[in-house]
Design brief:
By secondary structure, the chain is α+β, with helices and mostly antiparallel strands. The protein has helices at about 40-50, 55-65, 115-130, 155; strands at about 30, 70-75, 85-95, 95-105, 135-140, 150, 160, 170-175, 185.
Length: about 190
């Protein structure tokens, strides 16, 4: 899962790989995805994960009107305007209550560990707050997602995963400060999670 964020410490870009611009040089500009970004978003996921699964998932979610939430797919641009990171929130449910699922997230290998992933996730979560979303769910790396406010979903909120996932990796975030609903999470069909 090395493409899911930019600070997991994996050797995705070797020691001698060129580094992307840092925040200090203006290399992080998150914004909503546009129709012109679709091919770039696919390339980000293909390059980050070195397989088509996540790129295909994004395409399938984009085609599902029950899952896709306009305005909640974000990219981070490099200084030259090229999208280098992507994060997506889609509709899921906690019990019967609507929530959003953060997945997939990816950063081009040359831009990992320089803040592009964090920038796109922060901007996306803020857009979800502004859109009136209440609860976000993520299955991800335990050391990474708490920096955005995510905490273990089951032990903290009573939000149960659809499969037996580790509590420390299945996390939730209240976007509006209220107590999230309790119950089992249902993901969009494209995730293939029963």
């Amino acid at each position: 899962m090395r493409g899911t964020h930019d600070s997991d410490g994996s050797p995705a870009t070797g020691a001698g790989a060129p580094r992307a611009p840092t925040a200090a040089s203006g290399g992080r500009r998150p914004r909503p995805e546009t129709a012109e970004d679709i091919a770039a978003v696919r390339r980000i996921h293909l390059d980050a994960f070195e397989r088509a699964g996540e790129a295909d998932l994004v395409d399938a979610l984009r085609r599902d009107p029950a899952a896709w939430l306009p305005g909640l797919s974000y990219v981070t641009e490099a200084a030259d305007g090229t999208p280098v990171a992507h994060a997506l929130l889609t509709r899921c449910h906690v019990g019967d209550a609507p929530a959003v699922a953060l997945a997939p997230c990816a950063v081009l290998p040359g831009y990992q560990r320089c803040g592009a992933g964090g920038a796109v996730i922060r901007a996306l979560l803020e857009a979800a707050r502004e859109a009136g979303e209440r609860t976000a769910i993520v299955l991800g790396h335990p050391p990474y997602y708490p920096r955005f406010g995510f905490t273990p979903a089951a032990t903290r909120f009573g939000i149960l995963p659809p499969q037996p996932w580790p509590d420390k990796a299945f996390m939730a975030l209240s976007l509006d400060g209220s107590r999230p609903p309790r119950g089992r999470v249902r993901y969009p069909a494209a995730f293939g999670i029963a």
